[in-house]
Amino acid sequence: MTKQAKTAITPTRAEDYPEWYQQVVKASDMAERSPVRGCMVIKPWGYSLWENIMRVLDDMFKETGVKNAYFPLFIPLSFFEKEAEHVEGFAKECAVVTHHRLEKGLDGSLKPAGMLNEPLIVRPTSETIIGDSFSKWVSSYRDLPILVNQWANVVRWEMRTRLFLRTSEFLWQEGHTVHASEEEAVERTHMMLDIYARLAEEYLAMPVIKGRKTASERFPGAVDTLCIEAMMQDRKGLQSGTSHFLGQNFARASEIRFQSAEETEEYAWTTSWGASTRLIGGLVMTHGDDDGIILPPKIASSHVVLMPIIRKPQDRTNVMAFTENLAKELREKFYHHRRLEVEIDDRDIGGARGWEWIKKGIPLRVEIGPRDIANNSVYVGRRDRGHRDKASLARDHFVGEITNILDEMQQTLFERALSFRKAHTISIDKKKSFYEFFTPGNQEKPEIHGGFALSHWCGSDRCESKIKEDLSVTILCIPLNNQTEKGECICCGKPGDGQVVFAKAY
Amino acid sequence: MTKQAKTAITPTRAEDYPEWYQQVVKASDMAERSPVRGCMVIKPWGYSLWENIMRVLDDMFKETGVKNAYFPLFIPLSFFEKEAEHVEGFAKECAVVTHHRLEKGLDGSLKPAGMLNEPLIVRPTSETIIGDSFSKWVSSYRDLPILVNQWANVVRWEMRTRLFLRTSEFLWQEGHTVHASEEEAVERTHMMLDIYARLAEEYLAMPVIKGRKTASERFPGAVDTLCIEAMMQDRKGLQSGTSHFLGQNFARASEIRFQSAEETEEYAWTTSWGASTRLIGGLVMTHGDDDGIILPPKIASSHVVLMPIIRKPQDRTNVMAFTENLAKELREKFYHHRRLEVEIDDRDIGGARGWEWIKKGIPLRVEIGPRDIANNSVYVGRRDRGHRDKASLARDHFVGEITNILDEMQQTLFERALSFRKAHTISIDKKKSFYEFFTPGNQEKPEIHGGFALSHWCGSDRCESKIKEDLSVTILCIPLNNQTEKGECICCGKPGDGQVVFAKAY
């Protein structure tokens, strides 16, 4: 415990950020690696975050008229090939089903048997299979728009994986819409991006930049990919949700046509948009500290843990009665449309108990001992503050104020993350400074690069790849609210439009 | 429309029940076949039923301490082989992933590439892969019980498929629990079966018999399989949820061991239990009539559709205002923990509009024309009654009574289904009568067999298979509340315990 009294997670963020991430996820009991290559097991504490994210997003989607549906897990190879860029983009990372049963071989061991006529791809995304349904559902402009979403698992084979951030199988939602006009489809693309930004900022307390991907970073087959980008504590960027305007590309590939009001035959305009369990990785890296993860109250798996302190057996009845009574009262309260979730932890395991909840990132820890009960008070630790920073509060005051305290914590986490991003985002217009900014050894923390650089770019693939090659730095996005004046490309010096966001990225 | 004025679905149930099922599902717009062999597309109207079922079950699970988690889609072949009966039971219907990318072959077409060292099975159920996690999570009796559930897709390759009832991919939940004692595991098996029975009877209005499967019908690897069985309108049985006591079989296969309070090393006791989108097929076949499906209000995708009748353009403003005002007021009401869902359908498509909603099974259809508005009344059709049976109700009376009307409909549907089951369930103790009961041509409707026969059975596999061979009749279950006296086996005449339920089954 002496060690833990310094920091609960080894190494610290400053010592080794990638390893800190692995350790902090492990210590939180949110997820673990599975014996299946690249796949993770999402444990209950991690899954409940996903449940909360699903609930918030699902409500926001439905408010805009979106309905949920479900499409097949498998995509026939021939469907997948319909859009040339699309198949090119995913061919290298597909799980392929080739057989439909197992049979004992001559050596007595089971072998794949019943070979399929056409291999099936486990969906890495569903544009082509959903497009096939759309082509049947749409015949007239009266059938439009179609607005559907599915909550599903997808598979993109990964060789190097990290829990939540990059796994071969992950959970996500993918929305797919069909429109009669380009304007309406573009508007929908922005509307859904705004929903992702609201989820990120209002619920995950994760400030994001809304932007547009460059051609080289676009979704395979899209005309335009919008994204939200967040800064992690190692100052790298994390793409946290994307919304694609697909033009008529997938409509042509899947023959989604309709008769317009003017009785002409037209290809429809489609969009798709997705957010995944990766958001949980973003949450960890945005708010976690050297003691573990910190859950924003509005999305937390649980809000408060009550820890009765029973030093003498004869105290038990009294302390537990006070604890259960408090729990009951708290559970009747609502916090942002759901009931307060209260844990009671009466395990007799010493200081390890409090540390476990710190590592799990629960917003409030409440200790209840005979002395607190005598004073009708509780001893409260807030996860957004240091682990020693605890305060005695009158019980009824605590009950009355708890939702305000949680709101204040939510606000603090957001502002802290926003300050961090601001502190590590700078405008750079000299190539030399730009290279220094992204070169380890030139910063106070040598292993961490500078952060986000706002610089001009001429728009060429050449300059984009040169910088990627030299520095492993990409254009995170071209911000949508880009108000800056024209300037010289940070790479070649030719004229460029407003500044774009350069950063190392996950 | 003249044809539709008789029945909306062709053929009727009496004419051709299996074909009626296909047509009624299609007409309801709930689901459709996909181009992927054996997989279905669940359309929004169908998926919302699944969302409602998920919500009800999830709440009931959580009340018993179950938490959700998520485990990998893929199961390595070697894991799958750990339990001998288990692999035997599923080997013939597995989707097998053998490659992890696509590569252009010499002929320029894409082919599977990157062969895996070990084939991966797309989960048909997850005992073995979840067992692996459990083996790491459990070391002491203090870690028990573990109570987890996952909402997931599973794949069991089927050659002959029917929407919802039997598809290669389906959606379900699978719960998995680990216990320190046999009694506790057995108790959990029954507890979860009771939850399925509550879902079926209280929400789906589908009366069920709780029972136990015979050895030949058990889940592969289980010690005991409990089930709920419902009677469809063709008098066949539909297994609608199962709960398995797995003994220590899977604990041995996956090495789930713990140190007991007495410091001995023990294998744990496990259970698993699941219900799937098959329930939607059951719903259709329990309540549907020759005009389409009928949705029980407590689980309905939507509760009421308002259909403004606008004969003259100048009426529009007035009729729509009345309609929207009514919708607003209804949407503020709650019905069994969720808000009333109200559709407004102002399409100008004549009688097809009302028929569409009848076929979709929405509980209440409300017509609103200028005359109704003048009387401050609405014209209401209930889906549990004939399509001509409509009544004018004072608007405010309708608003005040709507939840009572829905409850009454829910009750009517349940009672109707229960009466149907009772009418077609008989005790039979003569072999000749038994064979007649299940032989087409001896009933008033020659194409439909008799129903459920309650008869004695000696307990032997031989008699069970003889009857299956002769009549395609199986033992649906041995009812849990079996109070009948001993009697003679319907097949061999030897002594048997209480009666069991014989029926043709889906």
Helix fraction of chain A, binned, reads: 25-40%
Biggest sheet details of chain A:
11 strands, mixed
Distance between the termini of chain A: 34 Å
Mean pLDDT of chain A: 94
Tell the overall outline of chain A: globular
CATH architecture annotation name of the largest domain in chain A: 2-Layer Sandwich
Can you say what the CATH homologous superfamily of the largest domain in chain A is?
A: Bira Bifunctional Protein, Domain 2
Major β-sheet strand ordering of chain A: 3-7-8-14-11-10-9-24-27-23-22
Most extensive chain-chain interface: A-B, 60 and 60 residues
Instruction: Please indicate the count of domains of chain A.
Output: 3
Total number of beta strands of chain A: 27
Question: Could you give a short description of this structure?
Answer:
Two copies of one chain form a homodimer. Chain A is α+β, with helices and mostly antiparallel strands and 506 residues long.
Report on the structure:
The structure is a homodimer of 506-residue chains. Chain A is an alpha+beta fold and 506 residues long. Chain A folds into three domains: 200 residues, BirA Bifunctional Protein, domain 2 (2-Layer Sandwich), CATH 3.30.930; 115 residues, 3-Layer(aba) Sandwich (Rossmann fold), CATH 3.40.50; 79 residues, C-terminal domain of ProRS (Translation Initiation Factor IF3), CATH 3.30.110.30. In chain A, helix 3 crosses helix 7. In chain A, 49% of the residues are buried. Chains A and B meet through strand 2, helix 3, strand 3, strand 4 and strand 5 of A and strand 2, helix 3, strand 3, strand 4 and strand 5 of B. Strand 5 of chain A pairs antiparallel with strand 5 of chain B, so a sheet runs across the interface.
